[in-house]
Amino acid sequence: MRARFAVAGVCFVGLAFTSMPGVVSAAPGPKLSVNVAAGRHPISPDIYGLNFAPEKLAGQIGLPVDRWGGDSTETYNWRINSANQGLNWYFENFPDCWIPRFNYCETGHNFSAAQDRIEIDRRVGAKTILNLPMLGWVAKDFSYDNEGSCSFPAGVYDPQDDHDPFHDVCGNGMRNGRFITSPAVDKTRAGAPADADFNAAWVDDLVGRYGDAAHGGVAIYELGNEPGLWSETHFDFHPQPLSYDELWQKSRELATAVKQADPTAAVLGPAEWGWPNYFCSPADVPDNGCNASSPDRAAHGGTELSAWYLRQFKNYEQQNGKRLLDYFDLHYYPQATYDGNRYQPATDVTRPLWDRDYKDPSWIDSKIYLIPRMRAWVADEYPGTKLSITEYNMGLGVTKDKRLQAIFEADALGIFGREGLDLATFWPQQGSPVPAAAFKAYLNYDGNHSTFGDVAVQSTSTDQGKLAIYAAQRGESGPLTIMVINKAKGALSSPVDLSGFAPASPAEVYRYTGGKIEKQRDKSVNSSGFSMSYPARSITLIVVPPA
């Protein structure tokens, strides 16, 4: 079985802010400890990023990085500001103005969604990640009246399983649940060729408008979006499964074009969707298993696709003296049903990010430990490459409870800092929008843009499934910030053993319990630590000043 959550739409919904009464009683919780002298390493500010960030929220949290990406950007024609929506919407071409802001193009006004995103990012001080189309075809046209070209017109391909309810001459390209292969799709019906030169011209245009990356222009370019799914999401333009060799060829050509057009910009790839395409190409037919004897993988020495991908870039640098890939990037979405009965409790949803002993309770049925696995691939194949996850949403398909979604996100952000991830951008989706409180807890917990520390220090919990703890210091000698996340359904009381730090008392305390983040009473802290009660499903930040 293969599962994947659609990521076509973006919906931002504000959190409802309500207050909750204080903790009346609390059960004994796990032991927590913080050693400020141990495990010290920088926390990258870029782990707190978003996709398509709302400008107001971006300004409130001082957003560090923002991504313009997703399925439709893989077919984006920057010359006419139009994209083919692929499987997400009947393989039709739509202009960028097809949004409420422009009254669904009724004004006849076209605009560039990419430039709009870059300009928002410049206003709020965020770096932009821009996805470049890599599969080789983009939308050839658009229409202001919802009658743009489509790849599967009814007159050619009917009967089809479904048609656009607003433009029924366009079908979904499927018959009896399978893509139609006869007559073969005509790529030119809705598409225009787009090679590396097409993208180089776009980067040149953006440098002319905004400067190069070193002077405030687009900071990072992404090599396509989820190439392992092209034969599904963009079947009309790429009906054949992607192979190892095609991925490398297209990646090399596009990365070279970017580095020539803007040598100061970073390049990120492969932006792969998930398991099993971390290990095998679509040409291996992973639905029937992925292992060293799978055909495409076997033809490349049995090497896992991610490792092979990194190795090609390393070999290129050794031969040409030039690094083409700066970030090794994967996407991750939970695939299991977390109901607390048949499967694991919902609060285990973040364990696949780091836990080497945790077997994912889904069709994956394996130990994922995503970030350590990524780090090992890079260490073995291309040291110096940064690690990124430019699409993730730990609440998507897991829970609609906004409070739990904030708990998941706060836990994920703590894990990213502890595990040394370099960049992450949250993907919002209807039903699981941006958990603003979780980002504010790390980036603006007091309304004055005070932040979680930027130097991670050792923090441990004897039961992270109930009570997780993450700690960091601001700089080498600043305040100690301790984030405690109670994932349990009831209040817990636990001691925090403190070492390697001389505190000044008292500490400030800030807490989220389903409403806005609120300041609590100050907490007395001594050189050995403190004890505190944590409400059910809460996020608590303790800010300990140095002596």
Q: How would you concisely characterize the structure shown here?
A:
With 547 residues, this protein is an alpha/beta fold.
How many helix segments?
11
Mean pLDDT: 92
The amount of helix comes to 10-25%
- What is the number of strand segments? 28
Major sheet size, sense and barrel closure: 11 strands, mixed
End-to-end Cα distance: 57 Å
* Principal-axes shape call: globular
Alpha-carbon Rg, integer: 24 Å
Given helix and strand content, the structural type is alpha/beta
Strand content: 15-25%
- Report low-confidence residues grouped into runs of 5 or more: 1-23
What does it look like?
By secondary structure, the chain is α/β, with parallel strands linked by helices. Helices cover about 20% and strands about 20% of the residues. The protein has eleven helices and 28 strands. Strands 1, 2, 3, 21, 22, 23, 24, 25, 26, 27 and 28 form an eleven-stranded mixed sheet that branches. An eight-stranded parallel barrel has the order 4-5-9-16-17-18-19-20. It has a three-stranded antiparallel sheet with strand order 6-7-8, with no helix packed on it. The protein is globular. The N terminus is likely disordered.
List the helices and strands and how they pair.
Elements: E1 27-28, E2 32-35, E3 41-42, E4 49-51, H1 55-61, E5 65-68, E6 76-77, E7 82-84, E8 93-95, H2 113-124, E9 127-132, E10 137-139, H3 154-157, E11 163-164, E12 167-171, E13 174-175, E14 178-179, E15 191-193, H4 196-210, E16 220-223, H5 230-233, H6 244-261, E17 266-272, H7 295-298, H8 305-320, E18 327-332, H9 370-381, E19 386-392, H10 402-419, E20 423-426, H11 436-443, E21 455-461, E22 467-473, E23 480-486, E24 492-499, E25 508-512, E26 518-519, E27 529-534, E28 538-544
Parallel strand pairs: 1-24, 2-24, 4-5, 4-20, 5-9, 9-16, 16-17, 17-18, 18-19, 19-20
Antiparallel strand pairs: 2-21, 3-21, 6-7, 7-8, 10-15, 11-12, 13-14, 21-22, 22-23, 23-28, 24-27, 25-26, 25-28
Helix pairs in contact: 4-6, 6-8, 8-9, 10-11
